[in-house]
Amino acid sequence: MIGADLHHPAVGAALSTASDLLGMEVVFVGGLSEEEFAFERVLGDLPGVTEGMRMPRADSFCHRLLAGAASSTDDAANDPNYKDVPDRETFGITSYVGVPIHASDGRVVGTLCGIDRRHVPVPAQSLQLLRTLAGVIEAHVADTTSAVVVRRTPEGWQVGSTTEDDLTSAMVLADLLAETERAPARPAKNEHSQLSEVERLQLAVRQLEHALAARVVVEQAIGVIAERQRLSPRSAFERLRKAARSRGKKVHDLARMVIASASDPSVPLPPELAGRR
């Protein structure tokens, strides 16, 4: 199983984008052990599918996917790879798509999937975007096992890791996503709508990737401010965010300055972030 907080904003944003991308009744993150499959995070509604539900791994579409079956089907009842999957009859599934989610050591720990009772084909371009979204979740899974911070040691400022302050980490990512320019609304359907829809979703994926990269920088800056001013990580984040907004700067841009100031005292900072050097 995945063993990470899948109700984090990173996962929610990835699932929402996957839902727009696929247009299926349900998208979900599935967790896998050697014996079990679980619907670990579910977005959408399909009778009988509930978040947290567990079943034998061999009963799931995801087991067949990871055993080498095609990544998608829109006619599972007549697909030799999927027609005898117990889940197909249990939930009345006609269409399925799935891509693996890897841990930092390369192990497959889950899947990002869509299911539907209708015939819903998945174009190759959409499948590639789904793989990118699985990468977003993989980055979150890796972050939860080794969240990056900066601390002062006898040898100077060093990057380390901790599993604490998950709430602060969630707040950071949610704030970064909120300050990112949002993609335009779903375009009206016309002969060019497929291209504009794909472009819109590509933009959403890029925004997620940018927010995840910026999150690492912001969390490093939080570590610096928290140590300098003897604050909790959450208070340090609030101070950084307030300083950025009062000066019309992006949080991650100001965070880079805070990090630079740890090794270069001449870097100019707002007084409320400078503290002792």
Tell me the CATH topology of the largest domain. Beta-Lactamase
Q: CATH top level of the largest domain? A: Alpha Beta
Structural class, by secondary structure, is alpha+beta
User: How much helix, percentage-wise, in residues?
Assistant: 40-55%
What is the strand content?
A: 15-25%
Radius of gyration based on Cα positions: 22 Å
Please name the fourth-level CATH homologous superfamily of the largest domain: GAF domain
Q: Strands of the largest sheet, in order across it? A: 3-2-1-6-5-4
Task: Give an overview of the whole structure.
- By secondary structure, the chain is of the alpha+beta class.
- The protein has 2 domains: 9-145, GAF domain (Beta-Lactamase, 2-Layer Sandwich); 147-274, no CATH class.
- It is 47% helix and 19% strand.
- The chain has 9 helices and 8 strands.
- It has helices spanning 9-22, 61-66, 86-91, 124-145, 166-179, 193-229, 233-246, 251-263, 271-274; strands at 26-32, 36-44, 54-56, 72-73, 95-102, 108-116, 147-153, 156-162.
- The protein has a 6-stranded antiparallel sheet with strand order 3-2-1-6-5-4.
- β7 and β8 form a beta hairpin.
- α1 (9-22) packs antiparallel against α4 (124-145), α5 (166-179) crosses α6 and α6 (193-229) crosses α7 (233-246).
- The protein is elongated and about 70 Å long.
- The termini are far apart.
- The model is unreliable at 145-152, 154-164 and 181-195 (pLDDT under 50).
